[in-house]
Amino acid sequence: MCPAAAPLPTFCQQLLLLLQQQPAGLSEYQLLQQLRSQADNPLPSGELSDPLCLFRCHFLLFNGLYQLRDLLLERGQAQLLISPLCVQLAPWTPGSQALASHDPLRSYYLDLQHLEDTGSDDVERLLASFWTRLHGNEDRQAALELFELHTAEDLSLGAITRRYRQLVSQHHPDRGGSHERLQTINLAMEVLRRHYQ
């Protein structure tokens, strides 16, 4: 006779119950709001508008989700799909445990030392880095539009370089083009080279 599985830790039980009540899944924000409305949750009680509090809530939530996912997979009960946009229970399938163990975020969130080592300055740097990358994506998109590249096959460095040469030839001042337009094309190429090297 198989021994009975140990009961789930309290936080994992809370998460499982909320997810079972929402078969279509919940966003991270919805899950945080529902958990924080319960009296016996392990999340910090500060304002989510405070970046450090938000980071700590996020980290503890994902720590609990990865623990729950591991326990559900060990027991062959379900898969837990984890993403900030949708956290959802799915049926267990053979091989899902092997796939889950290769998730690079799993080891980060299961190591509580990362939570302890992250202070306000670290969170501010993470946020600044995010906005820099987001702004960089806007620059990339503008450069692609300037080059009139929109389809997936156009997004190789070789295709971008070919298009760059066409535009330089077409807009070079020696061929009646504008010096300002050529500078814009060169700047766009630098942006795209950074993204596609």
TrEMBL record:
<dbReference type="Pfam" id="PF12339">
    <property type="entry name" value="DNAJ_related"/>
</dbReference>
<dbReference type="InterPro" id="IPR036869">
    <property type="entry name" value="J_dom_sf"/>
</dbReference>
<keyword id="KW-0143">Chaperone</keyword>
<dbReference type="InterPro" id="IPR001623">
    <property type="entry name" value="DnaJ_domain"/>
</dbReference>
<dbReference type="InterPro" id="IPR021059">
    <property type="entry name" value="DnaJ-related_N"/>
</dbReference>
<protein>
    <submittedName>
        <fullName>Molecular chaperone DnaJ</fullName>
    </submittedName>
</protein>
<feature type="domain" description="J">
    <location>
        <begin position="142"/>
        <end position="197"/>
    </location>
</feature>
